[in-house]
């Protein structure tokens, strides 16, 4: 997509940043607290970048574009309530796909 060109989904183009780390989730103190609260392994942080300036008055367009973006759908991980497994946002035949 050319710079300044609006995308099909509200003008935003997202990219997955798999190498981005979050020190706040891996410190010894935080890891200990997550374990204490039975949350260790049940919380995950992922990073995505986007190519437009965020404008708060377009927040609804931004959110809708994010969840429909072809770079987000296969990469965004969610924790399934029913199975406790990490799954992707992507839909295959109307059902969530496991990762």
UniProtKB/TrEMBL annotation:
The keyword Cytoplasm applies. It holds the Pfam family CFAP300. Keywords: Cell projection, Cytoplasm, Cytoskeleton. One of its GO terms (cellular component) is axoneme. It is found in: Cytoplasm, Cytoskeleton, Cilium axoneme. The keyword Cytoplasm applies. Belongs to the CFAP300 family. Cilium- and flagellum-specific protein that plays a role in axonemal structure organization and motility. May play a role in outer and inner dynein arm assembly. This is Cilia- and flagella-associated protein 300. It comes from Pan troglodytes (Chimpanzee).
């Amino acid at each position: 997509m050319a710079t300044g060109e609006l995308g099909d989904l509200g003008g935003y183009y997202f990219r997955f940043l798999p190498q981005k780390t979050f020190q706040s989730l891996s410190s010894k103190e935080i890891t200990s607290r997550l374990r204490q609260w039975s949350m260790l392994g049940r919380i995950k942080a992922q990073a995505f970048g986007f190519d437009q300036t965020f404008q708060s008055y377009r927040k609804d367009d931004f959110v809708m574009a994010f969840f429909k973006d072809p770079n987000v759908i296969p990469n965004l991980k969610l924790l399934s309530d029913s199975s406790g497994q990490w799954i992707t946002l992507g839909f295959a035949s109307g059902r969530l796909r496991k990762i």
